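Quick one: co-fold with S-adenosyl-L-homocysteine.
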Amino acid sequence: MASPGRHPRNRHRGHYDFPRLVAACPALAQHLRRNPAGEPTVDFADPAAVRLLNRAILADWYGLAAWDLPAGYLCPPIPGRADYIHHLADLLAAERPGPLRALDIGTGASLIYAILARKEYRWSVVATDVDAGALAAAEAIRAGDPDLAAGIEVRRQRDPERIFEGVVHPGERFDLCLCNPPFHASGAEALEGSRRKWRNLGRDGSPRPVLNFGGQPRELWCPGGEAGFVGRMVAESARHPDLCLWFTSLVARSASLPRLQAALRQAGAARVRVIPMGQGQKESRVLAWSFRLPEPSAPEP
Ligand code: SAH
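Sure, here it is.
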């Protein structure tokens, strides 16, 4: 099935404008290469290059001067991350006009969804993670920009088996939550996933250690993998149905969907949506659910 491509409001829908990005972040210049067609590019398998590309994009799009990432943490491809935020804005548009209050589960060292939500839509965001190093990096990004500092709060989840409980305050309410869950079911599987990605990028045999591909082992795996994580989200959401108007998560494996949809039916979700996303080979989707029916004044989209 053809992937849907970038969201129409995505700022990045074609080739990167490298001269402009280098102007925004001169250090990127040392990583520029030529592709076989002779066009400028960077080595997307090199975390140092992608880190500087991200810094350049965030400086160019949003004037963000202080974004950085400690070595070894997951370095997100920003255009793909932006798609999720735009699809969420569409999902909520009919029911909640105006800036939303969002909960970003597992924000990572990059704080990426919280940044995009704030800068694209002025949402206020509570961003959580379990990893102390990721939280320190996210907090440094937040503190380095007055607008992010005003609109984003970073919180630590101490129990990796919990999603909402222990990190949200009693009576707290959000318009939505979003999540890019740890994907693999074990450290060994995460390592094999990195190797496969490495081979697909044509780097097999390179001396580069695969664990440095980008991503701490703990951020790449959790018990039960992605389906386990989102399954725990479903179960907790059913215990706190009013916490968010819409609960959402990325689901990278389509094979995980039937089980999750069955769990949602059993949990009594009033509405369930699957929003296709992705570009080229990288197909993904957002699973969204709500325990509330739309208010009569807000017609269904
Ligand atoms: N949002 C970032 C990072 C995704 S990786 C991005 O899209 O690039 C998944 C993140 O979830 C990791 O940072 C990991 O530390 C975090 N995580 C794992 N279990 C968690 C839990 N129970 N609650 C909150 N975050 C968790």
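If it helps, The CA atoms of residues 133 and 233 lie 23 Å apart.
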